[in-house]
Amino acid sequence: MKSITSFIVLCVFMFIVVNHVKGQGKPTGCQVGQRYRGKCGADGTKTCLNDMKLLKLFKAKRCDCSEMLGKFQGWHFCTCYSGRPGC
Predict the structure, then answer these.
(1) Domain assignments of the chain as residue spans, ordered by start
(2) What is the Cα–Cα distance from 43 to 53, expressed in whole angstroms?
(3) Which InterPro entries match (predicted)?
């Protein structure tokens, strides 16, 4: 009975450790933010990826687009990630 209890405790412990390791997010890599004229449109990610192609120094894998307010109304802000760690 003691060995069965130890085995069950070991299995539960291993399950917790494995799930904790899987839950750790990988680094998103380099992040670049830039503002551009115009709005995000229906597909803001595509808009930002196209805008970032103009830089040619940064290959973006994923972008987030947000409309700017106030003084910069009519502009959008792109936050893009390279997908590789380190810059």
Answers:
(1) 31-81
(2) 16
(3) SCRL
